[in-house]
Amino acid sequence: MKYIYSILLMLLLASVSFAQHNYFSGISYDVAVPMGNTADYIDKTSFRGFGLEFRKYVKEHITVGGTASWQVLDQVRREESYEVNNVVLTGNQRRFLNFFPILANAHYYFGEREDEEGNAKFLPFAGINAGVIYSIQRTELGTLEEEKSAWQPTLAPEAGFFLPINNYLNIMVSAKYNYSVGMGDMEQQSFIGLRLGYYGYF
User: Is 16 helix (H, G, I), strand (E, B) or coil?
Assistant: First the structure.
């Protein structure tokens, strides 16, 4: 929690910097819509996620950076059958998925950051995230519990936009398709991430 407060303080301090500074970071509220195997296990949209991100301009329209986030999915499945140690059990299940993506990224921005008067502009972007995601899956059935986890290689194309609050602070909106490769006991996972963020230059 103290780390989150530090990030928020950094973003507030960014309001005294200049819009043309080449670094910016932010915090986001993340929603996850399960797809594929993930939806087969939990098909309920998750509203329990947040992320931290840093980006740096390396060219006028290109940034590189990184992001780390946490997404929690859970659902109760009633009268579901589940196989544990070659025994099929039926009952009410509580299912959990925790995703911890750690990703590097690169983005391209369609347009200029400022107009001729030096005011920040609406700025759409598209990019790619790549790295790993630590996935934890847990199933509870009565007093029984089964858990498995794995580090999974992940790709996540993304598109969105920055909407300026002023010349220093922005609202960020984006959609990201997270696709992770099956590893060990964990199947391939995928979900659409919808992000609403607060970003500042520094």
Answer: helix
What DSSP string runs through 151-179? EEEEEEEEEEEEEESSSSEEEEEEEEEEE
Question: What is the β-pairing status of strands 144-164 and 123-141?
Answer: antiparallel
Cβ neighbour number for residue 85 with a 10 Å cutoff: 7
Degrees, nearest 5: CA angle 125-131-135: 115
pTM: 0.84
pLDDT values of the chain reduced to their tens digit, one per residue, 202 residues: 555 555 544 544 444 333 457 888 999 999 999 999 999 999 999 999 999 999 999 999 999 999 999 999 999 988 776 666 666 667 788 999 999 999 999 999 998 888 777 778 899 999 999 999 999 999 988 788 889 999 999 999 999 999 999 888 999 999 999 999 999 889 999 999 999 999 998 7
Cβ neighbours of residue 117 under 8 Å, at least 6 residues apart? none
